[in-house]
From TrEMBL:
Molecular-function GO terms, alphabetical: carbonyl reductase (NADPH) activity; L-xylulose reductase (NADPH) activity
UniProt similarity note: Belongs to the short-chain dehydrogenases/reductases (SDR) family.
Name assigned to this protein: L-xylulose reductase
Domain of life: Eukaryota
Cross-referenced SUPFAM superfamilies: NAD(P)-binding Rossmann-fold domains
Keywords: NADP, Oxidoreductase
The species this protein was found in: Macrosiphum euphorbiae
Any matching Pfam family: adh_short_C2
GO BP, sorted A to Z: glucose metabolic process; xylulose metabolic process
Complexes and interactors: Homotetramer.
Length: 273
């Protein structure tokens, strides 16, 4: 008798599990692109390179984009789309907070603004160190504080994506300030994930290797410099700006709503070796 009851219980449990799985498989979801329609996002460092591409991708999905940069004339100009251009020096503690707070509640923030002072360790300057850490690390904190405050007030379950780098963990010569700044970003992101997660705000990193923006093409054109890194990339190429934008779009969307506090390596396998 007990065996019969046990078999019946197992049968019913299996039917429940299969029914749940079947409903999950059959569940219809909107496309990732539809998530962005009529939502608002801030992209810092939107004047060029990855930031400009990310802003353009969001605009193409009918999102409202606050494009942030130092030079308003270099920011995207797309007539007819939901674009607001804002001049902010992300390295300035006070103006970064006040200007981003003024933008009001948004659904996502991309902390992309960054600089790189290429200086050997023994020749690292105070100006190079301070500028790099102020923009690449401190700026992430200050912009995120303003965005998170607005999200919390508006009860928005938002997403913050910080652009870090694989050299936050794998050092290369002549980049001591940059390596330090991106290492800081990794820990900033983890701390934000722990503290903001309970408030419904996710924080994640995108960690590229070399990205072939206009500046990247110039900086890595010397084979002596680029080949040692290229040899460690199983896919055999450097990233394009759209490769980074793809990862950012995913982490901003509700397709990643259970992802929080992670490094997403967009590196062709560089970090596996």
């Amino acid at each position: 008798m007990f065996r019969s009851i046990n078999k019946l219980s197992t049968h019913l449990n299996n039917r429940y599990v299969m029914g749940t799985l079947s409903r999950g498989i059959a569940e219809k979801r909107s496309s990732m692109e539809e998530y962005f329609k009529d939502k608002s996002f801030i992209v810092t460092g939107a004047s060029a390179g990855m930031g400009k591409v990310i802003a353009g991708r969001l605009l193409a999905m009918d999102a409202h984009v606050f494009a942030v940069g130092r030079d308003i004339d270099s920011l995207p100009s797309v007539p007819g789309l939901k674009l607001t251009k804002v001049t902010v020096d992300i390295g300035d503690w006070d103006s970064t907070y006040s200007k981003i707070l003024e933008m009001g509640p948004v659904h996502g923030l991309v902390n992309n603004a960054g600089v790189a002072h290429i200086e050997p360790f023994m020749d690292t300057t105070q100006q190079g160190w301070d500028d790099t850490l102020n923009i690449n690390s401190r700026g992430v904190v200050r912009a995120s504080q303003a965005v998170a405050k607005n999200m919390i007030a508006a009860k928005i379950n938002g997403s913050i994506v910080n652009i870090s780098s694989t050299i936050s963990e794998r050092a290369i010569p002549d980049h001591v300030a940059y390596c330090a700044s991106k290492g800081a970003v990794n820990q900033i992101t983890r701390t934000m994930a722990v503290e903001l997660g309970p408030l419904g705000i996710r924080t994640n990193n995108v960690n590229p290797t070399v990205v072939l923006t206009k500046m990247g093409l110039i900086a890595w054109s010397d084979p002596k410099k680029s080949e040692p890194i290229m040899k460690r990339i199983p896919l055999g190429r450097f990233a394009q700006p759209n490769d980074i934008a793809d990862a950012v779009i995913f982490l901003l969307s509700d397709y990643s709503k259970m992802i929080n506090g992670m490094n997403l390596y967009v590196d062709g396998g560089f970090m596996t070796g």
